[in-house]
Amino acid sequence: MSAHESKYTPANPVLRWVEDRLPILGFAKSTLVDYPTPKNLNYWWTFGAILAFMLGVQIVTGIVLAMHYTPEASLAFDSVEAIKRDVVGGRIIQAVHSTGASMFFFAVYIHIFRGLYFGSYKAPREILWILGVIIFLLMMATAFFGYVLPWGQMSFWAAAVITNIFAAIPIIGDPILQLLRGGFAVDNPTLNRFFSLHYLLPFIIAAVVFLHIWALHVPGNNNPIGVEVKSERDTVPFHPYYTMKDFFAVVVFCIPFAWFAFFAPDILGHPDNYIQANPLVTPPHIVPEWYFLPFYAILRAIDFNFILDSKLLGVIAFGGSILILFFLPWLDTAKVRSGTFRPAFKWFYWLFAVNFLLLMWYGAQTPDMKVVGPFTVADVSKLSVAYYFLYFIVILPLLSRFEKPRPLPNSISEPVLGKPAQATT
Amino acid sequence: MATESNLAHDDTPNAGRRDFLYVATTAVGIVGVGAVVWPLINQMNPDASVLALSSTEFDLSGVEEGASVTIKWRGSPVFVRHRTQKEIDEARAVPMSDLKDPQTDEARVVAGHEQWLIMVALCTHLGCIPVGESGEYDGWFCPCHGSQYDTSGRIRKGPAPTNLIVPPYKFLSDTVVQIG
Amino acid sequence: MIKITTIFAAALIGLGLAAPVTAQEAGHTEAAKQHWSFAGIFGTYDQNQLQRGFQVFREVCASCHSARLLAFRNLAEEGGPAFSEGQVKELAAQYEVSDVTVAGGKRKALPADHWPSPFATELDARDANGGAFPPDMSVLAKARSIEDGFPGWVFNYFTTYAEGGPDYIHALLNAYSEEVPAGVTNSDGTPFTLPEGKYFNAVFPSNSIGMPPPLSDGQIEYAAAADGTTVPLTVEQYSKDVSAFLMWVAEPHLDNTKSAGFKVLAFLLLFAALMYLVKQRLWRKVH
């Protein structure tokens, strides 16, 4: 978004008149058309555009659903059903929104893990990364508020359990809990404020996305070999090369999205959410949506007291597992960005990825289920939690000091040791 | 989504040549955008539960001669007036040439049930509810902009363009009417 | 392209990790999957079956269970039992609904009205049913399911298995036995005893259910189908028909949604192919 350097002069006199007063066309041209982009970005890089697309989908379908939804405890469940049954095309719009949340999170996890592998968080892109973590946090909050709105059993108990996390804070925990819920328990006031926040947050996300893209355009994109752009030969203009590549990726992404939305809209949800909220009955298995499972597993794995009591400790681990991402640029100080050239890092990285999926799986199981021999989910998930934190706090800092990276190519365009730098398609 | 017009901008050596691939992709893209936009607009139309409420039954036996009641049909008020013989005679004595929107009184009621005048209670000007048994013509007077209707609900004076609308209705028996 | 495929394969596996797993108790039977006409991406409802299922619902279930989201007009909709408008009007007129705007507070139902509930409040329902509350049937078929262990749930994403509800309801209706079978235990291993006023059901989670066996062979004489289809008058048949009907009540636009889905998928595949060619042509000279 280096708009100030733009010397764009439209040919059309009306546009020129506008441009003289508000240089918005030059701004758009320099950020979306001329922006020099490394020519070796692979398909993992298209997930940025996919995420922008998904944010748009969720906002548009969300606004439509809000036209028909009633945020009142006795009417909310039936109003969601009325959307599915009576509103013209409502079943599909609702399905796109609810499966859209899953697709959105799927894409954001790919985007985050791409950044982790290719070192996209390293200088000079620390603020870009931090803004990304903020977006992720806002997404989690938005998804949680949204999940409460249908006011089914899972909605209600998710609201009860998650707000209860704040009760772990010493002394001020209980007053905060009542403040968040607007009552002694989750009830109509909670639903009302969650609806308000669910409507608000996506626009805040959009604003932070704007900053995220701004912070991207200052240093420019990272790329699969992690060597900075050295000359114009290393880049192509964003349009049409990446607009069309991203567009293609978005269309492909829509195929599984449509598959779920049209043919299996409820398969990612939980049947209990088709039972209207009942504050007197807890469902037998409370499971969050799949995209929260790794963090839910971390929260639940801490079932022992250690200086602090287990509840507070679990909450600290839960919060810490996300907050630690803010410090990542200063934990991994290795000079080489891309994991491709870091032989030892690769192993720990993939172990981290598998460990994350394991945590996801643990999150869906009952804690007393046996996994290996006499060891239960509660036992083995402690190992996974330990590795999750060790990766950031111990492994990455040590690797930065002791790992010997493979030789880097001179530039994106120049092959190293006679091999082509990276396939471009 | 990116805009289709982007595709027109092409910096291949063949730029400017009408390229089948780009034209086809743009066309398919436009169809796609249309197919997405239309349902998002169409959802604002009345939903199935609203459309289903298209008829209302009403029992007339409680309405005395000279009285009128207002009932709700499709979310709007409807006047049901039990007219006196004087009102009917008045309405039928008006020459067509005096009317802004000429229509006989007979055409506005059901033969055999002339005493019952059933009309959507919204002024045809801008939709306020006219006040009954008032105005210069003994009919209805709209307080918003001064439209005056006679005892048959026909516009006689003021800005309203047409007579008060008679909804579709039928008598199920002598005392029960179904509107809609 | 290979990379993209890998991504989505990985994604589907990743998403699959969310499926919960259930524990098994002695004497407890898991519901078996049935063949349903509406299963899979090509499945559609069988109109005759929905009409029969409606008859079972109306004559048996509806005397205790409500279905407050079901409107009479729904029964005439395409993709459902699709009775004629006239039939639905006639049917509705046989029921009374509350309406505060009419004298007496009751009037004959119209097609726009919702299915009247057999009990005014949950308390009334419990009083009449020995303390048990017959759940509302509007979305019951989606509020119940059977659970698949690994790797079943991975395949479910590809087969779009969404018939856990009807599978469960069908199994439950066929899992009654008059005597508690030998060897049944509670989840903690102690011998199972049936509480007073309850019935043994091998599929119901606690094995002791408040609902007496609702169906018996020959209980309902099905109205003749328009195309002359005849079916056996057995509990098995009744329970399949009513499960299918309840699935329709819970998901009335299933047929429509699927046919829209085919158009969308066909469009996306075509568009993706074109976009791929566009992208390839643009990138051809960049190396």
Verbal overview:
The complex is a heterotrimer of chains A (425), B (180) and C (287). Chain A has 425 residues and is mostly helical. Chain A has one domain (35-417): Cytochrome Bc1 Complex, Chain C (Up-down Bundle). Helices cover 60% and strands 3% of the residues of chain A. Chain A has 15 helices and 4 strands. In chain A, the strands form 2 sheets. In chain A, strands 1-2 form a two-stranded antiparallel sheet. In chain A, strands 3-4 form a two-stranded antiparallel ribbon. In chain A, β3 (370-372) and β4 (375-376) form a beta hairpin. In chain A, α3 packs antiparallel against α5 (90-118) and α11 (293-301) runs antiparallel to α12 (310-323). The longest helix of chain A is centred in the middle third of the chain and has 30 residues, at 188-217. The two termini of chain A are 26 Å apart. Chain B is an alpha+beta fold and 180 residues long. Chain B is built from 3 helices and 10 strands. In chain B, the strands form 3 sheets. Chain B has a 4-stranded antiparallel sheet, with no helix packed on it. A 3-stranded antiparallel sheet of chain B has the order 1-10-9, with no helix packed on it. In chain B, β6 and β7 form a beta hairpin. The longest helix of chain B is centred in the first third of the chain and has 23 residues, at 20-42. The relative contact order of chain B is 0.14. Chain C has 287 residues and is mainly alpha-helical. Chain C folds into 2 domains: 2-70 and 115-252, Cytochrome Bc1 Complex, Chain D, domain 2, CATH 1.10.760; 256-287. Chain C is 39% helix and 3% strand. Chain C starts with a helix and ends with a helix. Chains in contact: A-B, A-C, B-C. At the A-C interface, α4, α5, α10 and α14 of A face α1, α5 and α9 of C. Chain A: Residues 14-225 form the Cytochrome b/b6 N-terminal region profile domain. Chain A: Residues 228-410 form the Cytochrome b/b6 C-terminal region profile domain.
